[in-house]
């Protein structure tokens, strides 16, 4: 009988040891999951900055290559297929989606009502708050991704971005943002 009682007690200690190990592993996995989530958000932010830069460059190229009077595109699709020339030009390969929200970018309109830039539709709070490259230094301290306006270089003096003083004429209520100029 004594041997049977010892085994019962040993099983109890083993069970507690296994529970403790499972708890430690669970805590470790929870910490790893949180780290992966932050790393994924940072990667999406880097992708958003890269994609926004591509849109700003494409809009700038569209404006610079305008035959006659320089103008911005009236639709985002015009950046993919510019039909103003005998041979179609492509300022972007495709209309990229916002990496943060997965939705299409929202256009920022110039005072003339044409697309001068884009912004993210996401109202989430960015992790990155400082250390932006020169064209995007105005993003410092902004509280929403939708405040990050990726505007063509030629349009920046006419459009004030949030947190930055206007350097030139500004639309009555700031940059107008619309969904109408996007592809479905």
Task: Walk me through the topology.
Blueprint: H1 2-64, H2 77-80, E1 106-109, E2 115-119, E3 149-151, E4 176-177
Antiparallel strand pairs: 1-2, 1-4, 2-3
Q: What descriptors fit this protein?
A:
single chain; about 180 residues; alpha+beta; four-stranded antiparallel beta sheet; 2 helices; disordered C terminus
Uncertain stretches of 5 or more adjacent residues: 161-184
What is the SS-derived class? alpha+beta
Separation, N- and C-terminal Cα atoms: 78 Å
Profile the largest sheet.
4 strands, antiparallel
User: Shape, please?
Assistant: elongated
Series of secondary-structure elements, N-terminal to C-terminal: HHEEEE
Q: Strands of the largest sheet, in order across it?
A: 3-2-1-4
Write down how many β-strands occur, each being a DSSP E stretch of 2 or more residues.
4
Percent of residues in β-strands: 5-15%
The number of helices is 2
Radius of gyration: 26 Å
Q: Tell me the quaternary state.
A: single chain
Helix content: 25-40%
Averaged pLDDT, please? 80
Written overview of the protein:
The chain is of the alpha+beta class and 184 residues long. The chain contains two helices and four strands; from the N terminus they run ααββββ. It has helices spanning 2-64, 77-80; strands spanning 106-109, 115-119, 149-151, 176-177. A four-stranded antiparallel β-sheet has the order 3-2-1-4. A hairpin with a 5-residue loop joins strand 1 (106-109) and strand 2. The longest helix is centred in the first third of the chain and has 63 residues, at 2-64. The protein is elongated, with a radius of gyration of 26 Å. It starts with a helix and ends in a 7-residue tail after the last strand.
């Amino acid at each position: 009988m004594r041997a049977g009682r010892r085994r019962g007690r040993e099983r109890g200690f083993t069970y507690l040891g296994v529970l403790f190990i499972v708890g430690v592993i669970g805590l470790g996995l929870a910490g790893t999951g949180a780290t992966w989530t932050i790393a994924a958000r940072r990667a999406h932010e880097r992708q958003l900055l890269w994609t926004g830069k591509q849109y700003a460059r494409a809009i700038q190229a569209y404006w610079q290559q305008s035959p006659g009077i320089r103008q911005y595109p009236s639709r985002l699709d015009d950046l993919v297929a510019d039909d103003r020339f005998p041979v179609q030009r492509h300022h972007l390969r495709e209309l990229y989606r916002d990496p943060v929200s997965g939705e299409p970018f929202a256009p920022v309109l110039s005072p003339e009502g044409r697309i001068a830039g884009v912004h993210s539709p996401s109202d989430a709070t960015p992790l990155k708050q400082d250390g932006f490259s020169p064209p995007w230094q105005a993003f410092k301290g902004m509280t929403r991704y939708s405040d990050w306006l990726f505007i063509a270089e030629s349009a920046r003096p006419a459009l004030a971005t949030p947190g930055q003083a206007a350097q030139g004429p500004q639309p009555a209520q700031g940059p107008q943002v619309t969904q109408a100029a996007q592809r479905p």
